[in-house]
Amino acid sequence: MGLEYRAVGWNRQKKLYDLTLAAAVAVYLAAFVGVGLALKPNATAETLLIRAFGTAAFALLHVILSIGPLCRLSPRFLPLLYNRRHLGVTMFFLGLAHAALSIVQFHLFGDVNPLVSVFTSNAHYGDVADFPFQPLGLAALVVLFLMAATSHDFWLHNLTAPTWKALHMGVYVAYGLLVMHVALGALQAERSPLYVVLVGAGLAWVLGLHLYAAGREAARDRAGVGPAAGEEVGDGFVDVCAVDEIPDARARVVCAAGERVAIYRYGGRLAAVSSVCQHQNGPLGEGRVIDGCITCPWHGYQYVPETGESPPPFTERVPTFPVRVRDGRVQLDPRPRPAGRPAGSCSVKGAP
Amino acid sequence: MKPSDEFYVGYQPHAPAATGRFARNVAVALLALGAAAAAALSAGQRAFAPATFEFGAERDFVGVVEVDPYPTLLVKRPGEGSGWSRYLLVAFGKHGADELVGDRAGQAVRLRGALIHQDDRTMIEVAAGSVEPVVLEALANAADLPGEETLGVFTLRGEIVDSKCHLGVMNPGVRKTHRACATLCIQGGVPPILLARDADGREARLLLVDAAGGAVNDRVLDLVADQVEITGEVRRLDDLLVLRADPETYRRLE
Q1: Tell me: the pLDDT tens digits for B185-195?
Q2: CB B130 within 8 A of CB B112
Q3: Which of A202, A245, A250, B182 is most buried when burial is the number of CB atoms within 10 A of its CB?
Q4: Residue A228 has pLDDT above 60, yes or no
């Protein structure tokens, strides 16, 4: 969390993260170019670099796309998510290096503007097998640029989390474009089945992982509703679960009225807030109460349980919901309280 | 504390023990996987042709310029009766050498340039402004100049490539991934050649000209990097094979 916008709010774990990332990129590029020079003596340095940057970017994109669903499956992957934006920006720069070298190599020093040439030098747009692959890669780079350029919290705050999140879903558009870019380019040019196998395995992994995580999530949503399955118990409240089913400092997430609500238990009290963090729409209900504040598992954004507001001087706010205890069972009013009129909390013993 | 009881907060100085250990293991696994993938992907690349561009290593050449259908330089080999070598000429970037030597047809010149070569085929990238006329004694006997020999009509299959990249400026300078560049090069005046392959994979390079022996650059752009079948008259111009056929008769193979 921060009050001022800085290029990077460095901390120890971000430094470790970025050092590891830099080492991984360096090792990848060195291995690709080194093996190429050793085994392919006729290869030119520029060709090896173009391929090293391109494959590194594509491989890194698979890692980026895997982190979200892996974190849904196990919180142990959360350290990978914490600084995922730096992976995305790094991936963009690898793709940019690949594109810049390719455009210099294949499109510069001719009679046509290089950027125009990307779109016109192969005009077989009506042919599936011959379809130009370079415009697909450039389109993906534009999407990745938009995401890299708006990756900072400044843009997240000014665009609002839902708009920012929707924009950054463009990573799936970029991935689709890049799969086509690779399938219509490198896969057609190479002979080794290794490339087809790896691209196919990568696609299957990304799709399979997302589907599996989504299935688990849907099942969890269903299980999150109490035995009475949202049955109305009067005054607009629905039954959720027994008080003892919520561990201390943690939450029970219920899907009520189409929205995920996190009912937190802390120090003998209960409070309900939206399970969607205002920062990046993280799963607030999977967080913890730390220092009296609900803490998001993604980036540690914090909210006071009774008010849904970040502690001063921070200004984030999530909707709150009335919650009460009757006969040892937690009941929730799934209608969010208007801003400025927080729902407050109640005792686990049923008293207000 | 069990991993499931731990709670990771990125801005705290240290990750919980088990979570930190797991993250380190994942990072090490990704590093190893990345290095292995990079090595495998690099090793799996298709073989690169033994093609060379002596970039930055310019040298002098003395010979006779011919410009039809494409600029070439005829250089007398050392020794009496040892014949002539024919070098295709191109300019910097994706351009033919017409502007550099177009007004020197039939003249003896000295020029500077860098060699581009693959197997027995050699080309010179001519340095701009380096072409100057000279007196060449060998020209005193014009009968020394090589003649053209007709080898017959053949049907050949292969790929249309730009001679400059294919011979060494780019490696690989063939197939779809190089189509854009090859198209620009041929559009810019670089001589197009057919890289013909027979059923046994043997390759031959034939300079493409139309039935009247003229340049075909603008008429083959749509077929560059495709597999094509061409039926035409093959001629040998000293050590250079030429395929005469109108581009309208070229057939793209599906």
Answers
A1: 999 999 999 99
A2: yes
A3: B182
A4: no
CA atoms lying within 13 Å on the CB side of residue A266? 22
DSSP string, A12-49: HHHHHHHHHHHHHHHHHHHHHHHHHHHH-TT--HHHHH
Domain B148-252 classification at class level: mainly beta
Shortest alpha-carbon distance between residue A236 and chain B (Å): 34
Residue A256 and residue A161 share a domain: no
* Domain carrying residue A331: 232-347
CATH for the stretch B51-144: 2.40.50
Chain B residues with CB inside 8 Å of A44's CB? 48, 170-171
* pLDDT of B217 strictly over 60: yes
The answer to whether the CB atoms of A39 and B43 lie below 8 A apart is yes
Q: Min CA distance, A29 vs chain B (Å)? A: 7
Residue A287, amino acid: G
pLDDT in tens, A37-86: 999 999 999 999 999 999 999 999 999 999 999 999 998 999 999 889 99
Q: What is the ipTM of this complex?
A: 0.91
Nearest by CB to residue B23, choosing from A9, A79, A189, is: A79
Q: Which of B27, B170, B226 sits opposite A20 (nearest CB)?
A: B27
> Does the beta carbon of A300 lie under 8 angstroms from any beta carbon of chain B?
yes
Interface check A295 vs B, CB under 8 A: yes
Cα distances (Å, whole numbers) of residue B31 to A93, A304, B34:
19, 40, 5
Q: Which residue of A has its CA nearest to B177?
A: A185
